Amino acid sequence: MKTKTEKKEKTEGAIKVLNYLKSLFVSLIITFASIIIFAFIIKWASLPDSVIMPVNLVIKALSVFVGAIVLTKGANKGLLNGVIFALVFTLISFTIFSMLAGEFSLGLGLVADFGFNAVVGAIGGIIGVNRK
Question: Which domain holds residue 35?
């Protein structure tokens, strides 16, 4: 027979998983919406290819930042949860966009994405924990 403590721990674990999934969903929606809007802007305004990389970086940062805030709002360990969220988001978004592109390209760019997103996730996690 399960004790109240075991049931409470199981419920808390399920809530944490649901919070991660909700935060990932929010971040992925922000990412996809931003990329679609940016694609229309590029097509309409005939922007040079050199703007794609910096704008993609901003889109990723915004997505991770908002997701980390959503995840850690009212929680604790914001820095740790923000970093973990950022790493999971980076892995999932890399996988999704690689499948859409039809190629998986592992390299220093992916390592840089992990590092950059971890820093942004940590900042978002810290801010999320301290929001009322």
Answer: 4-130
